[in-house]
Amino acid sequence: SSVIKNENYEKTLEILSSAKKTTDNFFENVVVNDENENMKKNRLELLEMFCNTFDNFIDFSKIEGA
Questions:
Q1: How does pLDDT run across 3-60, given as a tens digit for each residue?
Q2: How many of the other CB atoms lie within 10 Å of CB of 61?
Q3: Contact 49, 55 (CB under 8 A)
Q4: Are 32 and 40 in contact (CB under 8 A)?
Q5: Would you list the domain boundaries of the chain?
Q6: How far is Cα 45 from Cα 41, in angstroms, rounded to an integer?
Q7: Cα–Cα nearest to 22, from 4, 5, 47, 39
């Protein structure tokens, strides 16, 4: 069984790679563990949503060591 859930490898990789620039920008310019607890909570929730988006495309349990 495949790591990529929908078997459309090319499209899946295209979609996931399109998030790279935005993701890099986020981590370069945003302090996730902000002193303000509300900001910290919101940013952690954003990261969780981001991870959940990837979970829709890839079954990480099938990657050795994951």
A1: 666 677 788 788 888 888 988 999 999 999 999 999 999 999 999 998 888 887 777 7
A2: 8
A3: no
A4: yes
A5: 9-62
A6: 6
A7: 47
Structure tokens at 57: 């495309």
Which residues are 58's β-sheet partners?
4
- How far apart (Å, rounded) are the C-alpha atoms in residues 61 and 4? 11
Tokens, residue 50: 């981001």
Do residues 66 and 60 touch, judged by C-beta distance below 8 A? yes
The answer to whether the predicted template modeling score (pTM) of the entire model surpasses 0.85 is no
* Rounded CA Rg of the chain: 14
